[in-house]
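Q: I'm writing a short explainer about Peptide chain release factor 1 for a general audience and would like to include a description of its predicted shape. Could you first generate the structure from this sequence?
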Amino acid sequence: MFESVQTVLTEHAELQTALADPAVHADPRRARQLGRRYAQLNGVVEAYRRYQAVAGDLEAARELAAEDPELAAEVPGLEIELGTATERLRRLLIPRDPDDGRNVILEIKAGEGGEESALFAGDLLRMYSRYAEARGWKTEIIAGTGSDLGGYKDVSVAVKGSSNDPAEGVWAHLKYEGGVHRVQRVPVTESQGRIHTSAAGVLALPEVDEPEEIEINANDLKIDVYRSSGPGGQSVNTTDSAVRITHVPTGIVVAMQNEKSQLQNREAAMRVLRARLLAHQQEQIDEANSAARRSQIRTMDRSERIRTYNFPENRIADHRTGYKAYNLDAVMDGELGPVVQSCIDADEAARLAALGEDVA
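A: Of course. Here's the predicted structure. Afterward I'll give you a sentence or two in plain language.
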């Protein structure tokens, strides 16, 4: 059982040797890549060692059970322990999303519902910011267009983690957030106290570590500059500092106007463009290898409604996993963990089912 572990053990040993070589650390990018992979394999190696230790204890207890009643009494507990260790190792052997260790750029856009939708987009930004803070991640607003009542028509926020373990990576948790988020509540603009339904869209993108990782031909870019504007279209800048970059081959368009400097807006736009191009490349790979690589959670259409936030009932519901709880106030305050975990669990179950006995 678990014949594939030997391949992991071999790679783990090779990485350990490589990371001990000072020459490897002369290339920071290469060192980070190896470090991430080593951290990922560490979990598998530790789980396998635990599995071996429990299996050895169980075998010894069974052999000596006839002679030692105390060891015989330990057998049922060790059998349960071995089952737990086996399942943990089995799950760790499921191939991970290669982007799990990456940081993330979240793009939140108001949808149907006018000002109420823009206010909800701002609420989502606050929810993600507090969730990130609770996990020890850092957030940075890259761009945003405010609304008249203090919400956001659109906002882009970068979320950065510090762990080398892909299982603790930002993308490993936030990749499930892409889609339409529906809200049901009484808008501040509603004088009759009627419940309205509106929505905001979230796009989750794994961020590129190094600019060189995504090759962009300058001839493929169409760059326009224009004057920035604020809520309601009011001018906030008298110079052409806003930047719009179009990647002609893919048709991807990124516009930035938050910074006063055209150079800063261009750098921010390129940062988001690289993330979108990385996601575009991954989508092409997913389409080519859909049966083997695609996660049922991750690959749902981004236009699909994924979650409902019902304020009158204090209810949060994820429509992909069936998760439902009546602590929406806490979720909006950043306690998003159980909702995300339901997606992780469903994703792992789907991958495990797809692999079948090949994992063993």
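A: For your explainer, you could say: The longest strand covers residues 196-206.
Q: Perfect, that's easy to follow.
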